[in-house]
Amino acid sequence: MKKVVSLLAVLGFLTFGIANVSFAANDQKTDNATTEQVADSAAAPAAAQAELTEDPDDAVNHGLHYTLKEKFIQGGAVWMTPVLICLILGLAFVIERIFYLNLSTVNSKKLLTKIEDTLKNGGVEKAKELCRNTKGPLAAVFYQGLDRYDEGLDSVEKSVVSYGGVQMAKLETNLTWISLFIALSPSLGFLGTVIGMVQAFDDIERAGDISPTIVAGGMKVALLTTVFGLISAMILQVFYNYLLTKVDSIVNDMEDATISFMDILVKNK
Questions:
Q1: CA dist., res. 140 & res. 153, Å (int)
Q2: What is the pLDDT of residues 1-25, one digit of tens each?
C-alpha cells in the first residue's frame, strides 16, 4: 500500500512538473509572438517611411526620362510621332554634315607649304599627286588648278574659281533638309494643337456643359504637341547654326588659300 501511494506521489509530481514546463513554454512563445508583432508594427512605419524617402530619389534619377515618355503618350501618337520623326531625320542629317565638314577641314597653310616645296623639287606632277592623296575640297580645288597649269595662269584661275564654287555647294548639301525639319516641327505641333482644341470643343458640345475637367484635358493634350514641336525645332536650330558657322569658316579659309595658291604659281612660273 505504501509503495502504491509513493508511486502515485511520484507520478503526480512528474505530471505537475511537465505541466509547469508546458505552461512556461507556452508563455515564452506568447511573449515571443507579442515581441514579433510589436517589432513588425514598429518596422511597418519605418518601411513606409523608407519607401517615401526612396521615391523622391527615383523621381530625381529617372524623372526626365519618365516625364518625357509620359507627356509623349499623353500628347497622342497621331501628332507626336510626326514631330519625333522630324527630329530624328533632322539629327541624322546633322550628324552626316558634322562628319563631312570635319573631314573637309584641313590645315591650309601646311598644305600650301607642301605644294610650294613639291613644285620646287618635284614639279607639277608631284604637286598634283600630293593634292590627289589629300582629302578635302581645298586639295581638290588645287588639283584642278594644277591640272591646267600648262594652259596658263588665266586658265588656272578660272578653273580654281569655278571648281571652288562646286565644292562650296557640296559643303551646303543637306542643310536645306535640316531647315525644312526646323520649319515642319513647330508647324506640326501647332496643327496638333488646333485639332486638339477642336476636339475639346466637340467634347464640350457633347457634354452640354463647360466642365473644367473636359476643357483642361483637351487643352493639355493639344498644347503638348506644340511644346514638343518647339523643342524639336530649337534643338535642330542650334545644330543648323553651328553647321552654317562651320561652312562659312571653311569657305573663308578656301578663298584665302586660293589667293595664296595663285601667288605660289606666279612665283614658280
A1: 17
A2: 434 334 434 334 334 443 443 434 4
- The amino acid that residue 6 corresponds to is S
Q: What is the pLDDT of residue 189?
A: 85
Contact 247, 91 (CB under 8 A): no
Of the chain, the end-to-end C-alpha distance in Å amounts to 150
Neighbours of 6 (CB within 10 A): 10
At 135, give phi and psi (nearest 5°). -80, 155
Written in H, E and C, the secondary structure of the chain is CHHHHHHHHHHHHHHHHHHHHHHHHHHHHHHHHHHHHHHHHHHHHHHHHHHHHHHHHHHHHHHHHHHHHHHHHHHCHHHHHHHHHHHHHHHHHHHHHHHHHHHHCCCHHHHHHHHHHHHHHCCHHHHHHHHHCCCCHHHHHHHHHHHCHHHCHHHHHHHHHHHHHHHHHHHCCCHHHHHHHHHHHHHHHHHHHHHHHHHHHHHHHHHCCCCHHHHHHHHHHHHHHHHHHHHHHHHHHHHHHHHHHHHHHHHHHHHHHHHHHHHHHHHHC
Buried b (16+ CB within 10 A) or exposed e, 235-264: bbeebbeebeebbeebbebbeebbeebeeb
pTM here is 0.68
Asked if 205 and 260 count as a contact pair (C-beta separation under 8 A), the reply is no
pLDDT band at 70; cut points 50, 70, 90: low
Q: Are 130 and 122 in contact (CB under 8 A)?
A: no
